[in-house]
Amino acid sequence: MTRHISDTVTLYNGVKMPWLGLGTYKVKEENEVKQAVKTALELGYRSIDTAALYQNEESVGKAMKESGIPREEIFLTTKVWNTDQGYEETLRAFEESRKKLDVDYIDLYLIHWPVKEKFPETWRALEKLYRDGWVRAIGVSNFLIHHLEDLKAVSEMKPMVNQVEFHPLLTQKELLSYCRNEGIQLEAWSPLMRGNQLDHPTLVELAAKYQKTPAQIILRWDLQHQVVTIPKSVRPERIAENADIFDFELAPEDMEKIDQMNQDHRFGQHPDRFRFD
């Protein structure tokens, strides 16, 4: 059981990935994202998640350098955007991200969305980047079971990670079970439901029981489902709060109460209905 912010899960290729990371979606302003990343690293976070789409890779890279923490101690994730998918396009996009981040390698490179007809070629590029040592692990984001099955049919390697929308209103039990069986690590984006439903009676009740906040209850629920989680915040006190989840454990019946909140409700887009143009 995860007991410390430095705890990691071992991906199927042997690479260790922290259970908790900082998300940086929609944090474009240079000083804001730099301060958030530096605060997180000071507090013991060792995983930072960004993407080409977020337009903040340069600031993330600068913050990592300015933190003084050795590069090899930080697990860095970025993603190839939909308009850059395809084999050659992905290789170019990766190099652009790597230069913006100003690093020699990326720890985890993800396909951001399953762009139909393109993601198999995009994946082939990721396999090459992995074989050539530019990335330590490769994975996907927003892939449903049928996307993963399609990929399996045409690829040499399975994704090491699948980063998806996952929270108490969208528990994705079938996908979680599938990924577990396949040795693919599930990772939660928007774990805190973009700030919605934190006043849900179940979360309020459990927050009182464990003397924690509703957000901390959710993040602990993630970890106990063996789901990596990357809550986003730019506020130092919230970044600290999100990390204060390693000194308690939810009872099985309380895990079940949160599971029962599921409504298959998405705050983001549905992967099968995403407009890629």
From TrEMBL:
GO terms for molecular function: oxidoreductase activity, acting on the CH-OH group of donors, NAD or NADP as acceptor. Substrate binds at H112. Coiled coil: none annotated. SUPFAM superfamilies: NAD(P)-linked oxidoreductase. Residues 20-262 form the NADP-dependent oxidoreductase domain. The keyword NADP applies. It comes from the Bacteria. The keyword ATP-binding does not apply. Pfam families: Aldo_ket_red. The active site is at Y54. Keywords: NADP, Oxidoreductase. The record marks K79 as: Lowers pKa of active site Tyr. This is Aldo/keto reductase. It comes from Thermoflavimicrobium dichotomicum. The lineage of its organism: Bacteria, Bacillati, Bacillota, Bacilli, Bacillales.
